[in-house]
Amino acid sequence: MASRAAGVTEFPRTALDLHRSRTSSLGKVTAKRAIRVLGLGGSLRSGSQSERALRIALSGAEEAGAVTTAVTGEALRLPFYDAGVSERGELAVRLVDAVRESDGVIVVSPGYHGALSGLVKNALDYVEDLREDSRPYLHGRAVGLIAVAHGWQAAVTTLNQMRTIAHALRGWPTPLGGAVNSAEVKFDEAGGASEERTERNLRLIGRQVAEFGLAQRAAGFGDPTHG
Ligand SMILES: Cc1cc2nc3c(=O)[nH]c(=O)nc-3n(C[C@H](O)[C@H](O)[C@H](O)COP(=O)(O)O)c2cc1C
């Protein structure tokens, strides 16, 4: 993952990004460039468990051949989305551009009072700025969704809300969603989880996002502007 300022990364613009040929469960797929998967979410808290869950899911996407980038932490400290103004700050522009360039997205939120956090919802509100795009909102993109809460109830209700939002944004929620109970599972700094099954599921969500992108492209439905 390429990194810039805290919490802000961009998709790599290297040779790796071009003319890839790889094998997935969909068979041999020759792509003009790697599938791009954007990770979005987490909390502002140092050592955010939800951000760590996101990193694991992104590594699953990378294992499936995707290049990834993430908008997390301070990069999500955006003004409340205002549909009445057209000017956007630097962070908002980067976020919207990262969504625009993506072939698939993984969104992770902590459960706050049984719902997704305001920080993550506000970031998702900025997807409204893609309404006039050739691929409006999350059109044609798989959306991996992961909720991390200190109990099952909020983990599940938050995941359900995120699915509803992904549908509203015209995205395709992956078959597997992540409901993580942070009272039972801990994510470490090194990118691991205390429970192997959780780690496996998060990686699988990332893989499903990348593979949907490959399938879309194989069917001729990829981003026409990205070749
Ligand atoms: C404002 C706030 C509200 C929360 N509400 C809930 C809740 O309703 N149910 C729950 O299980 N956990 C709740 N939690 C706990 C978080 O979901 C949990 O600690 C999560 O792992 C935090 O993610 P983070 O480490 O990425 O910040 C809340 C935490 C905060 C700060």
Provide structural commentary.
This protein has helices spanning 49-63, 90-101, 118-125, 152-168, 196-218, and strands at residues 18-24, 27-33, 36-41, 67-72, 104-112, 115-116, 142-149, 172-173, 178-181. The protein has one domain (15-221): Flavodoxin domain (Rossmann fold, 3-Layer(aba) Sandwich). Helices cover 33% and strands 22% of the residues. It is of the alpha/beta class and 227 residues long. The strands form two sheets. Strands 3, 4, 5, 6, 7, 8 and 9 form a seven-stranded mixed sheet that branches. Strands 1-2 form a two-stranded antiparallel ribbon. The two termini are 22 Å apart. The protein has five helices and nine strands. The chain binds flavin mononucleotide. Flavin mononucleotide is lined by residues 42-43, 45, 48-51, 110-114, 148-151, 154, 182.
Identify the notable features of this structure and list them briefly:
Rossmann fold; 7-stranded mixed sheet; globular; 227 residues; 5 helices; 22% strand; binds flavin mononucleotide; two-stranded antiparallel ribbon; single chain; 9 strands; alpha/beta
What can be said about this structure in brief?
This protein has 227 residues and is α/β, with parallel strands linked by helices.
Ligand inventory reads: flavin mononucleotide
What average pLDDT do the residues reach? 90
Radius of gyration: 16 Å
Number of domains: 1
Shape: globular
Classify the helix fraction into a percent range: 25-40%
GO molecular function: FMN binding; oxidoreductase activity
Protein name: Putative flavoprotein
Pfam families: FMN_red
Domain NADPH-dependent FMN reductase-like: 36-175
